[in-house]
């Protein structure tokens, strides 16, 4: 299947290159306004440091019509949330909607956190694997019945994703080897057992931890999350993981779903917890 590419929306190239640049975001908002897209107005209002009463009222009105604030992505979205800059920060969709609406979903925000709710059949898996999933800074692929073979198919498309959650999938330690060639920019990884794996206890999380000790492949990791209904990794494996050069936190709990909280943990000055 041919690989799909992604081009930032008109007027937004500079913002996609520098997502912290407020002026670049304002340029994109101006472009949206010129095209009659209400998102441009909402972004400008959201960026005001001291809005007056009329501006506050207008912001509330627009927020009340939130489906208009996702633009052409509306038909492809499930749940979503709006952030402080007037952009969609978190969203969910099915695998089918991801395939059909990829360009629109990817154009929501260069730092979008996307949760894929379903992935059905080999053809759908192959179609998702043909997408440049790095367009989503954070990608949740939890509970999708991904086994080792399916992760191997998806792995090349995950190159460039900064934050990845693979919890509640039946993945072995060997499965992570499929990620090694594509994990150079991976900063946060969450792993958790499927219900069928619960009885494996510590052995499975120790196998994951062992795979992540490949510093050349996973050396960019800052946050690792393990959760298992039976046991955490062994103390020996935890100590070895803490030696990874950029690691800031080891979380023995459910994955962090709030992108802002995850970024805070990745930048924490203190050592791994």
Keyword list:
single chain; 273 residues; alpha/beta; eight-stranded mixed beta sheet; 11 helices; 8 strands; globular
Task: Describe the overall structure.
The chain has an eight-stranded mixed β-sheet. Helix content is 36%, strand content 12%. Helix 2 packs antiparallel against helix 3 (38-46). With 273 residues, it is an alpha/beta fold. The N and C termini lie far apart (42 Å).
Topology (elements, then pairings):
Elements: H1 13-17, H2 22-34, H3 38-46, H4 53-64, E1 80-82, E2 88-93, H5 95-106, E3 113-116, H6 121-129, E4 138-140, H7 148-154, E5 163-165, E6 188-192, H8 202-212, H9 215-218, E7 223-227, H10 235-241, E8 249-251, H11 259-266
Parallel strand pairs: 2-3, 3-4, 4-5, 5-6, 6-7, 7-8
Antiparallel strand pairs: 1-2
Helix pairs in contact: 2-3, 3-4, 5-6
Tally the beta strands.
8
Question: Overall 3D geometry?
Answer: globular
Distance between the termini: 42 Å
Helix content: 25-40%
What is this entry, summarized?
It contains 11 helices and 8 strands. The chain is of the alpha/beta class and 273 residues long.
